[in-house]
Amino acid sequence: TQLLEQSPQFLSIQEGENLTVYCNSSSVFSSLQWYRQEPGEGPVLLVTVVTGGEVKKLKRLTFQFGDARKDSSLHITAAQPGDTGLYLCAGNTNAGKSTFGDGTTLTVKP
Amino acid sequence: SAVISQKPSRDICQRGTSLTIQCQVDSQVTMMFWYRQQPGQSLTLIATANQGSEATYESGFVIDKFPISRPNLTFSTLTVSNLSPEDSSIYLCSVPATGDLYGYTFGSGTRLTVV
Lengths: 110, 115
Prior knowledge:
The complex is a heterodimer of chains A (110) and B (115).
Chain A: E1 5-7, E2 10-14, E3 19-24, E4 31-37, E5 44-49, E6 55-58, E7 61-65, E8 71-76, E9 85-92, E10 98-100, E11 104-109
Parallel strand pairs in A: 2-11
Antiparallel strand pairs in A: 1-3, 3-8, 4-5, 4-9, 6-7, 7-8, 9-10, 9-11
Chain B: E1 4-7, E2 10-13, E3 19-25, E4 31-37, E5 43-50, E6 56-57, E7 68-72, E8 75-80, E9 89-96, E10 104-106, E11 110-114
Parallel strand pairs in B: 2-11
Antiparallel strand pairs in B: 1-3, 3-8, 4-5, 4-9, 5-6, 7-8, 9-10, 9-11
């Protein structure tokens, strides 16, 4: 079983602060996704990274895939209350299955 | 991306009964997936629902407990049978995301509480 560990598990910050969430594994993934999930809803796909070292930006969110394709990070600049939610990373193997991380619960206080 | 309608959104069920969850997709998809999630935690894949053949179950999940139907390319059901409090969880269906080779689109989930 390929495990994805996310850190921190919980994060509570003030509006306007920056934060980084990490997703680490000892396994290599062909691609990795980040999702955000709000209470009562399913996860919503934010981004997919495929190439080692790849960096993608989505407004205030910056995603990076590690050079060895074993880890990833999500950086949020100037966090807003609307960023509050559960952030999940998921890694794809060449067999086409996704393994989900254990999640980071982010709370941004106004 | 595909739009998934999942229902019920929540239910409270008695021990020993069953709950059937439905997912309707607004486009035809080859594969649909069923997940279980404890609130605020990770997702665990239960099975892959294949149209025209039996579902493929992950380790630890069996057809007798989680029978799945996939009558066509836009619809699937998951039944959680012989309910016990340990089955209390959120159940989600998903399909491959449109325009993204690797990601998935999820239904809004069904929160099941067994009493």
